[in-house]
Amino acid sequence: MLRYIIRRFLTIIPVLLGVSLLVFGFIRLIPGDPATVMLGERATPESVARVRQQLGLDKPVYQQYLIYVGGVLRGDLGMSILRQEPVTRELIRRFPGTIELSLGAILFATLVGVPSGILSATRRGSWIDSLSMLIALTGVSMPIFWLGLMLSFVFAVILHWLPTSGRLTATMEYQPITNLVILDSLLQGNPTLLLDALRHLVLPAVALGTIPMAIIARMTRSAMLEVLGQDYIRTAQAKGLPQRVVILRHALRNALLPVITVVGLQVGILLAGAILTETIFAWPGIGRWIVEAIYARDYPIVQGVTLFIACIFVLVNLTVDVLYAFVDPRIRYE
Amino acid sequence: MAELATELPLTATTLTHPPRSLWRDAWRRLVANRLAQLGMAISILFLLVAVLAPVVAPYDATTDSDLVHRLNSPSQAHPLGTDEQGRDVLRRLAHGARASLGVGLGAVSIAVVIGTLIGLVSGFAGQWMDLTLMFLMDIVLAFPGLLLAIAVVALIGPGLRNSMVAISIVSIPIYARIARSTVLSLKEQDFVTAARSIGVPSDRILFYHVFPNSLSPIIVQGTLGIATAILETAALGFLGLGQQPPYPEWGAMLADTVKYLNKGAWWVLMFPGLAIIFTVLGYNLLGDGLRDALDPRLRVD
Questions:
Q1: Which one of A132, A306, B34, B46 is least enclosed by Cβ atoms within 10 Å?
Q2: Model pTM?
Q3: Is residue B185 included in any domain, yes or no?
Q4: Count of alpha carbons within 13 Å of A86, Cβ hemisphere only?
Q5: Most B CBs within 10 Å: which of A145, A158, A297, as the mutation test of the B interface?
């Protein structure tokens, strides 16, 4: 087992190196002089020279790469062009927002997706099954940003129930500890803050969680159907166990394995979806930040955030693989 | 495979019924599947809209604006209402279909051709060639698709054609992996060994014997890929990185609505979204249907 984990872990090193090379090449691939492109045509020669030096563009390419990777390994993702701030610092400030949003989304996706998948499987062919599979099928075909806009329109513009932008009401007093507002409000024992944070979280989390919810529901259904056809389920039913126990303890436990994998694989969808969701709901996370940076041509930010997200993505996929091997003893030696 | 069948007349005489080709068999299963029918109907409908739009309802985005009829709700003159510049939503939707479907189909075609080629070469050549190519594919797969597409567009500049390039780059590895895995599973099969032993050159084996066998998973994935590509096109358009104003594209049309959401103009929000959902749903249903139809394990007499 340990050997498998180590081997699997070693395989990501070359991939991460390749990723860093690609992300490093990103700025160098910009047609024309990157510094001029970023600063615009009217930039003074001094500021162009400063940015060129800051990006290390005056050194040979291999040296530039080594400097870049060296910096990244020490947690230095460079400086943003416009505000002249370390990218890492802002990343640390903004990432908790994305974590909170993604956790909310995955919670919604699992809490709705798994039960509706179970219901569909146990009542196969009924209207519940058809309805939940129709929702699942529409869910995967829906653009996140459209769902986000519709939710804003219905719940904020028409019904005035929920706020549609930001993580907190502007007048709310908040001293960040972890920048995870919900966690902080619990730590500080502040129910008003908690309620406000939750109210802001609902719409973006539902928008972001819908596609994963649909995928999880479909996966749970098919995994349950497969398990429910097994002999040991018939045995459990034959010995007179209540249907609830058969389904929840005997069937669901065995069907959960592929479901866990699917939940893990949603992280990529969440990270990409966060870019759109955060843009719509003015949510101060890294997704909205990268879009703003692209508009402003602040490429060090784009570079840093892209590298960061890719690393998370690779590590999460690795974790899912290892977890899978942990749960299923058949997967062990390649 | 066809050449082989003629070389073995024995099997033909032992069959009790005339052999049906895999493709004809798959087609029969596909048209028997209700959901696949629906998917096909939707896909064809939107394709027709895209193709016929310039003929039926010619449109010049550069001159279109009618400031007297801004944000009119659906009426006889404008069945789906007008947008903030008084432009007919239906007409823009029809012409937007050209952008969305064009990029969707275009990006998938490019990705399928390049990806399949990479996969075939990688699987067939093996050794360092295989390692290098698959390593490159792994790197592309290390990014969430939409993020990489956004980064590529940020690099090469916004626009419809560039977003097509970005979306196709992102999906190349999917087809490369499928093609490679079929090659690996077929490489050691008897019919390949037989072809090799009678002196058929490698490239001929690859394209005439191995390639046709990798077609069905690639067709399935390609159909589902069109759905994803349409969603990604819309996402890029929504972020302002795809189709540029004033030209219509479904995602870009939705981006405009953000500014006047509170004016209650539900029609400018609703219809472009429905167009995307239905088109994507169509290709998803068709893709699922094709997967069932092309699965040889489900073959029926």
A1: B34
A2: 0.85
A3: yes
A4: 10
A5: A145
